[in-house]
Each structure stands twice: as C-alpha cells, then as structure tokens.
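To start, an entry.
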Amino acid sequence: MKYLFSDHSELYSQARPSYPVSIVQEILKLVQEHHFAWDCGAGSGQFTQVLAPYFDHVVATDISEQQLQHATYLENVSYQVQSAEQTTFADHSFDLISVAQAIHWFDFKKFYKEVERTLKPDGILAVIGYGLIHVEPLELNQHIQKLYFETLKDDWDVERHYIDEGYKTIPFPFEEIEMPVLKMQYQWSARQLLDYLSTWSAIKHYRKKNIDNPLIFIEKYLGCTSQPISVEFPVLFRCGKVSPKKQKKVLRKGSK
C-alpha cells in the first residue's frame, strides 16, 4: 500500500467528500450480524464515521498515522496503524470488511488472503469508491475534464486506472453480489471544490515538477461566481463473500 496522503492529512480530512448513508444501508442488507467491522485503508475516517453507528465495534486501520490522527473520535471505533496486507487480527473476526477509495493501492493477493483469514464464514467484503467528479455549470466541468485528462495526464499514479474503469477490472476472487448503481451528490462552494481538487495525488506530483499552478483556470472561473456548485460522483461498488470451498480451506488451516 502506498503512502500518498500523509503530507496533507488535514486538508484530506476536511476536503474529501463524505459518504452517504445509502451506501451503508445497501451493505447492511447483506450483513447477517453487526458485531465487528474492519474499515481498511480508512485514512481520516470518512467511511468509518458513516459505518460506526451500525456496528457494536469498528476497527479502522491505515498505514498513515498522520491520516488517522485527523479521524473523528467515536466511542465504538478503535484506530490502528496496520497494513492492509498483514494484520494482527484473529481468524474469523469480522462480520464486515470495508475498503473505501483505497483498494487500488493494495497488494491484491496479500490483502485478499487477509480477508479470507479474518472474515467470518458468512461475512461480507465491501469495496467502495467514487469516480471522476462531475459538476454544473458545464463550462466548469469542462475545465475539470481538461485538468484531469490533459494537464495531469502524466501525473496520475498507474493504479488510478482502476478508478477510471469503475473498479470493474480489479481482481475480485469472491462470490460476488450485484449492487445497485448509486451516486454521491452535493452542493459545494468554490472553496470546497478547490480544496477537493487540491487533494488529488496528481496535483501533488505535478507541483513537484512544475512551477505553474495547474488549477489556475479553475480558480479564475470560480473567482467570478458565488453560486453553489452542483457536484456529483459515481459510486464504485463491489461486494462479495468468501466461497464455501475457500472458507473450508481457511478453517482447516486455522484448526491445525
């Protein structure tokens, strides 16, 4: 898993979009028990906060201590610095394992072994994310499209293609459950939009190599408006269970 957001953890915690409860509600339809959940790659806890009210206890992990320090304190949540690919959790601990906007940074093979080991026999793995922002007015959206596809085209990490492909191409060796198509919608100020764009990893990479401001045209456009901006993200959503065959293998290993 990559360390990408530690050096602007506070901005990330403030500017990244919150997840709607509707995502959790869809996941809860699949989860049989609500005792123990693991939110992996939790960052500053955007998804953890939405998940926590529905479980007795949630453990939220990330490799970035700086990110976790900006997470909101919740009585039933413990924040731990742990890698997604190797944890200290006991076998068959979790009713739910969630990963929000992070799985594309993981070593899939190693993480999925941890999922198979730590998920309860009827537990659920929920992989969530959000794709490229779409805004109105359309002229502003065109500026963002140009920023994303032209100005920053050489500055995105290679793993970004998984998001561009809607998480449809990530390896997913589980019994998959079809999920509904959802969207995240907000009304943002100009400041909120600029702060969000500033959290893009490609912006950080661009600024290390160039002296010009990649957001200049968007800043100029936003400087001429005080109207709220309609913001929409497509939700990326994959859920599944460990197959009974794999589960038996894991259970046999655990009993030795």
In short: Residues 6-255 form a domain with the Rossmann fold fold (CATH 3.40.50.150). The radius of gyration is 19 Å.
